[in-house]
# Entry
Amino acid sequence: MKDNAFIGFLIMALLIGCKEEKKNDPYIWIPLEVTATAYNSVQSQTNEDPTITAWGDTLVPGMKSLAVSRDLIVKGLKHGTMVRIENFPDTFFVNDKMHHRWRNKIDIYMGKDRKRAKEWGRRKVCIEYAVLKENREPSSKATKLKQGVENEY
# Structure
């Protein structure tokens, strides 16, 4: 009987701990459904230097990196944004951007493993991207004037 009470106490402590962790998370995680494909560090899939991204970052196999379509950049998936992809345990980072023709799409970096990228194929996935809570608050000129902030523009 004591064991059951102890196990119950541990489960309760874990549940409270998880809620507390989310409460202190400095980010808001915004969900979004996108089309996901995969790419590799090879010239046939990129350009003359397949290890350099459009933002100038260097890709190294094993990195958790994403390329995003440019419409997603406007939505908030800017350079360096953290992204969680369903069914992946890791957090990825936006380090590359795609050609203008693509819309609502991410490209998951898979190093030089072409077989793995082909197996991934093309699929719809749900992602969540991080936005700092402090950056989500209203920042219009009218709001700042109401708060007594003068001529910041």
